[in-house]
Structure prediction request, 293 residues.
Amino acid sequence: MIDGVLNINKPAGWTSHDVVQKVRGILREKRVGHTGTLDPLATGVLVLCVGRATRIARYLEATDKEYRGTMRLGVVTDTLDADGTVLERRDYTPPREEEIRRAMERFTGDILQRPPIYSAVKVSGVPSYRLARRGQAKPLEPRQVTVFSLELTGYDDPLIHFKVSCSKGTYVRTICSDLGEELGTGGHLLNLERTRVGAFTVERAFTLDGLSALAAEAGRDKALTPIDAALGDMPALTVGERESLRLMHGNAVPVLSLPGEMTGIPLRVRDETGRLLAIGSVQEGKLRPEVVF
Prediction:
């Protein structure tokens, strides 16, 4: 039995599910799941949870992401990226760099963003992309996301190169499409690399071939980040022996004092030896376990 978090550098052309299936075979472990999909076109960080670490997937999925990519001006597609069908080609006067930077500023901060119809967002239980393939999709409701930064890193018309840091649920291809409309040129995402998910970076990600080589040498554990370390950005709380026993059975325990900023947020809970027992949160003076290890 193996447990931990795996940082994979997803190759282009693979779905996230393809990667999960491949890793299951490499590790000979059925309990493998991802913490947020990457489109087939995209490469870069795909964080996988293995064994008991599948219980922390929702916490890792909620972390911020960073990407670098390229968009193409003048061409609009149905999927908002290069994998889609071309809907329109536009003649345009190439925008100046200053115009692009000003337009990018309008897509930073807390913004409302409409997910693409070719996405996994469910409509009455059915993924929108399935409806879109049948010609039955309708525009999805806008959602609030946060774009912490959107930076122009290069420009050679019709190509705009950029970096973006954003919250969970942000669609970079929608940013590209919306930016193209703002500039009056239209546009779509040409390529994308996810460079960071929380503390996991592309520089430290394993290729599938690299993981296979480690597994062949009985070194698969070297690729796994322990559960506690994977949650390193989450505040930690230590409890005594009596409280540990109650928590391990799923029971809430009283907390006499706790800094205000640690109330109502997920906490790593450890026993006095430093062993990770659970993830929980403090509500109304009681520590309630959400996940028990």
